[in-house]
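Hey L., structure's done. Input below.
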Amino acid sequence: MVSLFRDLNSLMLTINKPVPVFKILFKAFVVVVLATGCTNHDLKSENQKTSEMENTNGTSITLHGQTIHTVGKLPAVGTQIKDFTLTDTSLNEKSLADFKGKYLVMNIFPSVNTGVCAKSVREFNKDAASLKNTVVLCISKDLPFAQKAFCGAEGIENVVMLSDFRNDFGHGYGVLIADGPMKGLLSRAVIVADPQGKIVYEEQVPEIGQEPDYADALAAVK
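Output:
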């Protein structure tokens, strides 16, 4: 940038000399182009640094083999589960207090309208009936109407469908997808907390198209 100002200063000095106008205009054009190029390069470099910093605290997962990222990391085993606000299929808000004193299984996924996500709901619904003092929450960004329609069509009765469509669960639990085609949806993950609210199991599924480990998740509540 110092050299650009030096060139500009030199240009201004030549204005008082008998130099053809087209030469003055040409020099001015060169200075402007160089200055714009440097500015754009600086902005691109700054944006790249910002993007890299955002991914530093996230988790790398894949979508059909292509790397994407979440905005954060799952709460660690041994820590207390965070409070949350989500919306049920009747448009009522639910929080951690509504499930106090029970084992809590959180089945988190992008959308119930995809094959793997739908299968995870069916699997947990099938197993939830035999789990004592346990509630299974199926959480996605789907609208409550879509979740209700799915449960009605599939005969899902043993899990609680909750939507993050107007809340911030995804950021709070580090499962919001930050980039790629599914940016803005939730990643596939499972979190299990005991009746005291301590997290006893967590799995961030590494590939969106992969099912969670049902057996390990359910073993955490037995």
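Residues 62 and 207 are 5 Å apart (CA to CA). Residues 60-219 form a domain with the Glutaredoxin fold (CATH 3.40.30.10).

-- N.
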